[in-house]
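Reviewer comment 2.1 asked that we show a complete input and output for one of the modelled complexes. We chose the guanosine-5'-monophosphate case, as it is the one discussed in the main text.
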Amino acid sequence: MSSHTSQKLIILAAPSGSGKTTLTNRLMQTFPQLAFSVSACTRPPRAGEVDGKDYHFISLEAFREGIANDDFVEWEMVYQGKYYGTRKSELQRLWDLGKIPILDIDVKGAVNVMRQFPENALTVFIQAPSIDALRERLQNRGTETEESLAERVNKAEEELDYASHFQHTIVNDHLEEAAAKLIGIVRDFLQEN
Ligand code: 5GP
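Response of the prediction step:
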């Protein structure tokens, strides 16, 4: 993949239930030059999720083939047996369109991508106000089983330790305030060379 200083990217690391989808959508409404980087993953789609828009939902076999072909900028087994990854071709596709990709990925993937694009990446860690609030949001969303909810809450706890790796941290306790902060940070980044 060719890398160029004008090829910026934005990495948002956010646990499940932190409000990242809303924040990401808000960013894309504000800045039309941004575009969501669609990851590949091996978990099944949730009700309402669209293949090719939320994720490319692929089989474990296809994912392994992608790893063997060196198709991924980064990939992780984010949850037990569930793989998620950012394809090189997806970033290149967006850059070719003149867009700046937004990656919504887990902290390990984020640190991995930061190392590969140290000059061009904006990195923001989005934090839920508290673990209890996160659990409540996930429960209210009603998309998770007991097991997958517990897995997401545990992961969010682990991820807190990584916040210091990021250029910015935003605590999403009030959506409007968090969105305004994020928009300010991104505006500054877009104005840099
Ligand atoms: P879910 O969509 O299953 O609730 O949660 C997905 C988790 O995996 C989130 O923390 C999300 O940021 C992360 N994730 C999504 N896509 C990728 C990816 O391409 N790479 C990595 N490393 N993590 C991802």
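The chain has one domain: 9-191. We note this here for comparison with the apo prediction described in Section 3.2.
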